[in-house]
Specification:
Blueprint (H helix, E strand, L loop, with lengths): L11 H34 L10 E3 H9 L3 H10 E5 L10 H4 L6 E5 L4 H21 L4 H9 L4 H6 L1 H5 L3 H12 L3 H18 L4 H55 L2 H6 L2 H8 L1 H34 L4 H45 L1 H6 L3 H27 L1 H25 L5 H42 L22 E8 L9 E8 L4 E5 L6 H8 L7 E6 L2 E2 L5 H6 L1 E4 L8 E2 H5 L8 H10 L3 H5 L8 E2 L8 H14 L4 E5 L7 H14 L4 E6 L2 H4 L4 E6 L2 E6 L1 H7 L1 H10 L2 H4 L1
Parallel strand pairs: 6-13, 6-14, 9-12, 12-13
Antiparallel strand pairs: 1-3, 2-3, 4-5, 4-7, 7-8, 10-11, 14-15
Helix pairs in contact: 1-11, 1-14, 1-19, 5-9, 5-10, 11-14, 13-15, 14-15, 14-19, 15-17, 15-18, 15-19, 18-19, 23-25, 28-29
């Protein structure tokens, strides 16, 4: 995975932007439960009252509250409240009478204070309220007030003369007990008294609560919209990054595969390379698309949720810890079982591609031998193995969702149970409990996201390793650092000097001490039994492999000292199996020479004896060719392959048993046309049929990787026993004479 990290470098800016947007989205999501808590606590329960210390209070109320305060608290209150006439106007020009319609002649107005002073005032009023409740504890009016959550302020004012006569020590003792109580309890009791003071002054608490709910609701809508915009942008950026990285990976893999020599292709099967270019890259793309979001978003949500939840209620944090421990234990068990299967799945996909490819390309052979049922069973076996493994992994993964829902719902029930008891004791507010529940769900969801990454990362890591194997493979055939140029006075000359070759991992050489020269204007033929090394010589001349010992020279220069492109530009190659590409006949013939004219193309087709069947097609040279040339016969495919090589007008023509699918008449006509039209080109022909090469200028006979005879047809009949055996098996006595 680390080796592929460089592919993210071009998208650094997009990654940074995505992380920033994710952070913004997480902040929006984390703040929504907090605002919901405020709506419930402040908007519904407290009628929009946010501060314990009232903004305005009657003279009677002021005297009642200060009665139960310490000297320091009284001083603080006196410093921050000022006695005003109800006819006075506030800073906005409104009279206090218009705001507090039931206010008497005078009332106390709170000055503009900062948050620190506001908190101190709130503590003073909260402690005073609870001190008052402690003193009158057990009395009927207090019981009614606590049960109904409503205070009859007028009745309390009637008790003021009694309160004034209370000993200072009684108030102080009650005050000390009050301040040792939970702050939530002090705040709630203080708010209850503030509501009573506001009602006394004629404030419409219902309207006040509705306005507060509307205000917070609009803020929540704005935050939700911002979070939605961030989500869309993150999705856009993650899709763009993942698609871009996948595109670059596929490009580099394809470029690397194109540079492979046959040595490298021997290490990787074609089916495996296709899987690595497609399915493995898709695994990386999926990881990036989901990982950019989850790897950044989940930790922010998890850590932020824990902080927010503890702020709401540290006493219930053990519930979240318990839920996370259970979830992580479950994830660990599932991952331990499932992760080893991911590598197996990728190998099975390779195998499935291999079987599918073999069946599709060899369909005619399979039908001809009546083995369709065998191949069907073979496919069903590998497909069944892949299906079973995928089902096993998917079943393990499907346990995650119900387990998460069970943990989430169980946590919610536990929070409600514990929270309800705390609410009953006035240690927590309903909104805080609801917010805590939301944060718990967010935390569990964050850990679930991380668990999903535990699923994606191992599978993508397997794919990354497979991709890295291709990209890090050292290509054995490379261009030299100091490139030489071909000698202009030796055009078309191919020389093999004491060439030895051994395939990688083989115990012995395939070719031993091969030496010959192919000259321009001549036909050099190579013949020998199957496995004698004929095609290997062609591969060495094309530098698909490098010789183990010896030298191959083209135009007087060792082919290892020139660029591969320059070498192959001189050669027209017709392989044993004529391979055509999807397109048209014209596009295939022009494949090696894009600038060839139509007349030259037609001439090449005429030499290759392909004009006859091309002219019968509806669109002639524009007739469609299917992938691999499946819509033309073997002989037609070979003739088009020969025409493609001729259209290149090369100095050297290599025919690797390229006439095997031609009938004798077409073979003879083709050889005659080649002799008349190749000019000064060097022609090297690999053949199995003696009739194809008997007129060659120079024939080389191979046996077990060694040259056992060289010369013309007649010379070899006299001097080479191996050639005579081959010729005797194919020609009549009259032809041998």
């Amino acid at each position: 995975m680390v080796k592929l990290a460089k592919y993210l470098k071009p998208f650094t800016t997009s990654v940074i932007l995505a992380i920033l947007f994710l952070f913004g989205q997480a902040m929006c999501d984390l703040n929504l439960p907090n605002f919901m808590s405020e709506i419930v606590n402040n908007g519904i329960q407290q009628n929009g009252i946010q501060n314990v210390a009232p903004n305005a209070i009657s003279e009677s109320g002021y005297k009642l509250m200060t009665t139960f305060m310490t000297a320091d608290e009284k001083q603080l209150v006196n410093e921050n409240y000022v006695l005003k006439s109800s006819n006075d106007k506030n800073s906005n020009g409104k009279s206090y009478k218009s705001i507090y319609q039931k206010a008497e002649k005078n009332l106390y107005i709170k000055k503009a204070v900062n948050k620190k002073i506001e908190d101190k005032l709130g503590n003073a009023f909260g402690a005073s309220t609870w001190t008052f409740f402690k003193i009158i504890q057990g009395k009927e009016n207090h019981q009614k007030s606590t049960k109904s959550n409503h205070v009859d302020i007028k009745k309390l004012y009637q008790l003021q003369p009694i309160f004034d006569k209370l000993p200072e020590t009684t108030i102080l003792n009650a005050h000390n007990k009050a301040v040792s109580s939970d702050k939530t309890l002090l705040r709630q009791s203080g708010i209850m008294m503030t509501k009573a003071f506001y009602s006394e002054l004629g404030v419409n608490l219902q309207k006040m609560g509705n306005m507060y709910i509307l205000k917070i609701g609009l803020i929540m809508i704005a935050i939700a919209l911002l979070g939605g915009v961030a989500t869309v942008l993150v999705s856009f950026l993650s899709s763009r990054i993942s698609a871009g990285v996948a595109r670059n990976l596929r490009k580099d893999i394809f470029k690397k595969i194109e540079s492979f020599s046959n040595n490298e292709f021997d290490k990787f099967s074609t089916a495996s390379l296709i899987t690595r270019c497609t399915n493995d890259v898709m695994q990386i793309q999926t990881l990036l698309m989901m990982g950019i979001r989850m790897l950044c978003y989940a930790p922010i949500m998890g850590i932020g949720g824990i902080i927010m939840a503890i702020n709401k209620s540290s006493s219930m944090s053990w519930i979240i810890a318990l839920a996370v421990i259970v979830l992580l234990s479950l994830i660990t068990i599932i991952m331990t079982v499932a992760i080893p299967k991911f590598k197996t799945i990728q190998k099975l996909i390779d195998r499935l591609n291999l079987v599918s490819r073999e069946n599709l390309t060899g369909l005619m052979v399979i039908r001809a031998f009546g083995n369709a049922s065998h191949e069907k069973r073979r496919f069903e076996e590998v497909n069944g193995d892949l299906t079973k493994t995928n089902l096993f992994v998917n079943r393990m993964m499907t346990l995650m969702m119900p387990a998460m829902m069970l943990i989430m719902n169980g946590s919610s029930l536990l929070i409600i149970w514990v929270g309800a008891h705390q609410i009953a004791k006035s240690d927590m507010q309903v909104g805080d409990m609801m917010a805590f529940m939301q944060y718990a769900i967010q935390i569990i969801t964050a850990f679930l996201m991380i668990s999903i990454m535990f699923i994606l990362v191992p599978r993508a890591a397997v794919s990354a390793t497979r991709i890295s194997e291709v990209l890090s493979t050292n290509v054995s055939i490379i261009d030299p650092e100091k490139v030489k140029s071909f000698k202009s006075d030796k055009q078309g000359i191919v020389e093999l000097k004491n060439v030895h070759f051994r395939y990688e991992g083989a115990e012995k050489d395939v070719l031993n001490d091969i030496s010959f020269t192919a000259k321009p204007g001549q036909t050099t033929a190579i013949i020998g039994p199957t496995g004698s090394g004929k095609t290997t010589i062609v591969n060495l001349i094309l530098r698909f492999y490098d010789v183990s010992k010896g030298n191959i020279l083209v135009d007087g220069v060792d082919i290892r000292e020139v660029k591969q492109k320059d070498l192959r530009s001189k050669i027209g190659y017709v392989p044993q199996k004529g391979l055509l590409l999807s397109g048209t006949i014209a596009s295939n013939l022009k494949y090696g020479n894009k600038t060839i004219s139509d007349d030259e193309m037609e001439k090449a087709a005429e030499i290759a004896q392909a004009t006859e069947f091309i002219s019968k097609k509806e669109n002639e040279f524009n007739a469609e060719i299917a992938q691999g040339g499946e819509n033309v016969s073997g002989g037609q495919k070979q003739r088009l392959s020969i025409a493609r090589a001729l259209a290149k007008s090369p100095e050297i023509l290599l025919f690797d048993d390229s006439f095997s699918a031609l009938d004798f008449k077409t073979d003879s006509a083709l050889r005659k046309a080649l002799n008349e039209n190749i000019g000064n080109s060097t022609m090297i022909v690999i053949a199995q049929r003696v009739s194809t090469i008997m007129n060659a200028d120079h024939i080389i006979v191979l046996d077990n990787g060694r040259i056992v005879g060289q010369g013309t047809h007649k010379e070899l009949l006299r001097n080479c026993h191996e050639y005579l055996e081959i010729a005797s098996s194919q020609l009549s006595k009259e032809e041998l004479a």
